[in-house]
């Protein structure tokens, strides 16, 4: 098994987050498995399975308060793109 860097991101809704990461950022789903009343969802950029994002629905009020602020006042993670407008629009 290869080493992997995995980090979790709190989201409001799995399907909306999958859609955003896929259509806006180009990620692909590695895993989307049911876990009782929850899901195990991981995504990565194509050809880069060494760094994986695990999505987790923010269910509690404390977790919901962290949505969009998981890195404090700093970005939680960053991506580089040649055309930000094309990457984030449409």
CATH third-level topology: 2,3-Dihydroxybiphenyl 1,2-Dioxygenase, domain 1
Number of strands: 4
Q: Which second-level CATH architecture applies?
A: Roll
What is the rounded distance between the termini?
38 Å
Oligomer: single chain
| Rg over alpha carbons | 14 Å
Question: What composes the largest sheet?
Answer: 4 strands, mixed
Query: Which word captures the global form?
Result: globular
Uncertain spans, ≥5 residues at pLDDT below 50?
Answer: none
Mean pLDDT figure: 82
Kindly describe this structure:
There is one protein chain. With 90 residues, the protein is of the alpha+beta class. The protein has a single domain, classed as Roll (2,3-Dihydroxybiphenyl 1,2-Dioxygenase, domain 1). Helix content is 24%, strand content 32%. The chain is built from three helices and four strands. Strands 1-4-3-2 form a four-stranded mixed beta sheet. A hairpin with a 2-residue loop joins strand 2 (28-35) and strand 3. The model has no long low-confidence stretch (mean pLDDT 82).
């Amino acid at each position: 098994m290869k080493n992997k860097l995995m980090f979790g991101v709190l989201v409001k809704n799995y399907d909306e987050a999958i859609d955003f990461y896929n259509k806006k950022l180009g990620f692909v789903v590695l895993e989307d498995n049911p876990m009782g009343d929850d899901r195990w969802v991981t995504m990565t950029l194509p050809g880069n399975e060494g760094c994986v994002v695990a999505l987790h629905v923010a269910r509690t009020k404390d977790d919901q308060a962290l949505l969009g602020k998981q890195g404090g006042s700093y970005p939680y993670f960053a991506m580089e793109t040649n055309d930000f407008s094309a990457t984030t629009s449409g």
